[in-house]
Amino acid sequence: MEAAAAPPSLRPRRSLSINPAPAPRPGPKPRPWGLAANRQANAVRCELPRRPDPRLLRARAMVGDGGDAAGAGRRKRLAVFVSGGGSNFRAIHEAALAGEVHGDVVALVTDKPGCGGAEYARSNGIPVVVFPKSKSAPEGVSVPELLHTLREHEVDFVLLAGYLKLIPAELVREYPRFILNIHPSLLPAFGGKGYYGLKVHTAVVASGARYSGPTVHFVDEHYDTGKTLAQRVVPVFADDTPELLAARVLHEEHQVYVEAVAALCDDRIVWREDGVPLIKSRLNPDVYL
Ligand SMILES: Nc1nc2c(c(=O)[nH]1)N[C@@H](CN(C=O)c1ccc(C(=O)N[C@@H](CCC(=O)O)C(=O)O)cc1)CN2
Ligand SMILES: NCC(=O)N[C@@H]1O[C@H](COP(=O)([O-])[O-])[C@@H](O)[C@H]1O
Questions:
Q1: Which bound ligand lies closest to the C-alpha atom of 165?
Q2: Among residues 98, 126, 216, 266, which one has the fewest Cβ atoms lying within 10 Å of its Cβ?
Q3: Residue 137 C-alpha to ligand 1 middle, in angstroms?
């Protein structure tokens, strides 16, 4: 699941075979793109002044279907689901230890008990739960056992971070608006069944898309169709390989997921009246990220 080990600068770049461009037609000079783009640009962030939107004035500061089931003020209890290296899990855990996230990871759930995320959890004293049961993981628990374990750990929020199995409807119903996922593309593009890991970036590069980036979204009963909470944008360069793009997106994932989880733990997520979740800035409550 993780991008290749070699740093991006040392990885073989895609050789560019560019067809001769058709004779230019008279008209405005095309803007430079691709290699002429600012290669140092790793992310694009737009913060434009906004006039107060009436939909926001009626936004409800709530998490879940009503009230504050998670309890305002106290540190929240997090369960993280992984299937691979777990770099997003590590970023969240380190942010919790550093005080940036007002929560604690109290359980790690994985379908791959030997994966890097599970090893990191064990080395940090975080209980590992295997779900679901499979031939390669016969020690896995059932859905009712998973729900019982999450209740036993008094989990407030579930965070998917490179978990590759469908979260069952029973769990989605138990934690409505309390499950987040991070996906490595700008949903709804390049999402759904079959879109995970490097497959996503391969499809993005092959499509000719000029921008990509991670999406943090709430989880519903289907892959990648829940409400989008946060996104970051990175450029896709003409000579990008899927691995180079994966590394650029992953760097932004670690930041935007920590930002979103911090907001979740601070009860700074508000729901616009049309059902769109927004993150209220920690510094200025009149600004939504
Ligand atoms: N109920 C939900 N469960 C999960 C969601 C979700 O949004 N709702 N997100 C996924 C994570 N994900 C994309 O962000 C994702 C993961 C895996 C797949 C996929 O096609 N998986 C394969 C199996 C892969 C394997 O076992 O190696 C498949 O189902 O055939 C798509 C999207 C986590 N769960
Ligand atoms: N569709 C789900 C999906 O592709 N998730 C992606 O798996 C990787 C996990 O990396 P990590 O294990 O190092 O956090 C991340 O890039 C995440 O966006």
A1: 1
A2: 98
A3: 18
| Atom 13 of ligand 2: nearest residue by CA position | 87
Does the Cβ of 221 fall within 6 Å of ligand 1?
yes
Cβ(131)–Cβ(146) below 8 Å? yes
Is residue 217 annotated as part of the catalytic site, yes or no?
A: no
Give the Cα separation of 123 and 110 in Å (integer). Answer: 15
The ipTM, to two decimals, is: 0.98
Ligand 2 atom, smallest distance to 116 CA: 12
The neighbouring-strand residues paired with 280 are 288
Query: In sequence order, what are the residues at sequence separation of 6 or more whose Cβ sits closer than 8 angstroms to the Cβ of residue 156?
Result: 69, 70, 71, 76, 77, 78, 103, 178
What is the pTM assigned to this prediction? Answer: 0.85
Spatial neighbors of 207 by CB under 8 A, at least 6 apart, are 190
pLDDT average, residue stretch 78-90: 98
Q: Is 5 left (phi over 0), alpha (psi -120 to 50) or beta?
A: alpha
The CATH number given to 76-279 is 3.40.50.170
Considering every ligand atom shown, identify the ligand nearest to the alpha carbon of residue 89 and give its number: 2
8 neighbors 248 (Cβ within 8 angstroms)? yes
